Amino acid sequence: MIDKNVFRFNKIRPVFIGLAGLAVLQALLIIGQAYFLSKAISSVWGGATVASQLPQVALFFVCFMMRQVGHFIKDKWLDGYAYEQSKEIRQQLLKKVFSLGPNFVQKEGTGNMVTMAIEGISQLENYITIILPKITNMMIVPWLIAAFVFTQDVRSGVVLILVFPIIILFMIILGYAARAKADKQYEGFQILSNHFIDSLRGLETLNLLGLSKRYGKNVYNVSENYRKATMSTLRIAILSTFALDFFTTLSVAIIALFLGLNLINGLMPLFPALTVLILAPDFFLPIRDFANDYHATLNGGNTLKSIFAVLDAKESGVQEDLSLTHQWDVTDNLSVQNLGASYGEAIDLDAIRNLDFNWQGYGKIGVVGRSGSGKSTLIKVLGGFLNPTPESHIEINHQELSTLKQREWQQQMFYIPQDPYVFHASFKENVAFYVPDASEEAILSAIAQAGLTDLLTELPEGLATIIGEGGQTLSGGQMQRVALARAFLDHSRKVLLFDEPTAHLDIETEAELKETMLPLFEEKLVIFATHRLHWMKEMDYILVMDEGQIVEQGTYQELTTRNGDYHRFASDVVGGQVDE
Ligand SMILES: Nc1ncnc2c1ncn2[C@@H]1O[C@H](COP(=O)(O)OP(=O)(O)OP(=O)(O)O)[C@@H](O)[C@H]1O
Description:
Subcellular location: Cell membrane
Oligomer: single chain
Pfam family, one: ABC_membrane
Bound molecules: adenosine-5'-triphosphate
Order of helices and strands: HHHHHHHHHEEEHEEHEEHHHEHEHEEEHH
Keywords: ATP-binding, Membrane, Nucleotide-binding, Transmembrane, Transmembrane helix
CATH topology of the domain at 4-312: ABC transporter transmembrane region fold
Domain ABC transmembrane type-1: 17-299
Membrane topology: Multi-pass membrane protein
């Protein structure tokens, strides 16, 4: 009934103890209410004056008011707790997603992760504020009421105790059916989220290909499936509410019948009969309350399970403490042997394998190869965004590492992917991303070096213009130049990993930028993956990749004089066989 993941919330024990205390108090107040009300009515019935019963009526009101105050305090307290917990879990979730990296998000689906962090967390709040108190009430309140009823009329107590397990049994049977439906509904929800984000991202492509209508139909079908799954879960939820209402009303009616017959036959005085009759609906109230939100319990349970599954996801690759306390310099050494990596266990062939190379100090290493040869994968492994296979050997300054996901390494590294991300923030903030306290003068100079001055003059609010999604949109080439401007601004990072940093630029623009980029490469370790061979002349060393392996390596001189893979690749490029 209670999802065991709940016990992983912070400070949940005191919460359960508090809820249990409040449930006991509530049960006592319910009993008090019934007791004083029946006392007053039965005394007036027995001939006492109304005035003489005023103290009983006042006590009834005190119990009634205290119940309401109890509810209010409980709601306030749980709201605060739920808010704190959801904030904490959201932070943990984001931290975990960051450390699991982009491949994990890609595998799980961006839409799914977004809805989990937003909608999922609000369901979790719901679970804490609504479901937990209802479950605790259900476990405590009926038993205290039943105990009191036994002191008044044993037969009524027996009826209550007999009906309770029948209702629970019914709930379990319906619960099993509802769980299967709720699981299906949750799965549908995840598919819908992924489909929706996917279609928003691909809107431009779909429009261009004239497929937006067909794809729209696809989203419609997925949402229809989700609607059907929701309706089917609701059907079971409504059925269970109806069944519970039916049984509880029937039980109250049976008790009323017994009490009525006893009263008519003079076997029982009015006071206990009235008290039991007032208490009987309150005995069933917690279970009815819970049943009304049973559907939300299942959803909350599913969300908890998926959130904690992400939090428990194993981060492959242990974080050894890399002892690199200074910025990369001429004395430092990077060596990889038998390096391999894959994107998932299901994929048979590793995206890269058996890579060996060794580098000391500064220098420019070019990585070339056909599309799909593994250049980006190598850069991702070197950047620590993708873990290598367990057979790989990586060493920095002869320190063996199982992954390059090392804070000390990543903090001195600068990475430009094929499609750099521009955040929804001002132009200035985007450029000063790595150096937030850079002076305006330095930012303007970096912008000029990246060839973005023209864009800046066109932006309505200059440096303060919001760019990125929801702001001024930039072209692929402009985004790459923003990423380059970030690199021009940050002189402290000595390791540059570039994955086709100029892929979205035309040849003329690239030639212009190349002049400003080359000085940036001085006194740095640069690993530069590209299709465009003219960069290779500037490189100190070249790795030629094909089908996930380094097929040739050496200096530009060596490779151009040798009639090897580089030569063949270069002639294919010149001959137009390779898409540049
Ligand atoms: N996210 C991913 N999930 C699964 N497989 C992938 C993923 N990214 C790349 N691959 C596969 O890994 C192999 C190497 O791809 P990679 O992107 O490293 O090549 P590349 O040389 O950088 O190509 P390009 O120049 O087109 O970017 C390819 O077979 C590709 O299909």
